Amino acid sequence: MLNTANPMRMDTVMLLALGYLVLAFETDNPGVWLMHCHIGWHISEGFALQFVVRRDKILDLVDTAALEETCSAWNSHVAINSIAQDDSGV
Description:
Blueprint: E1 31-36, H1 40-44, E2 48-53, H2 55-61, H3 64-80
Antiparallel strand pairs: 1-2
């Protein structure tokens, strides 16, 4: 049974094998928010997901020129330093 009157408030939760977790949060901050495990290889194995919040407002917040410039800088850095990235980099 869910405790909706006084639920636990945490940002870290341990799940039992075959367990489940019910999340509730306000969707008042537009963006794409990552929820993930802090163990790197777990993320590569799929222990991460994204919440898209208020999709219609996101494009108003994005500076696409700055985003493209950052991606170009990273691609140059990878090429110059021979970086082999085999995961998401989260």
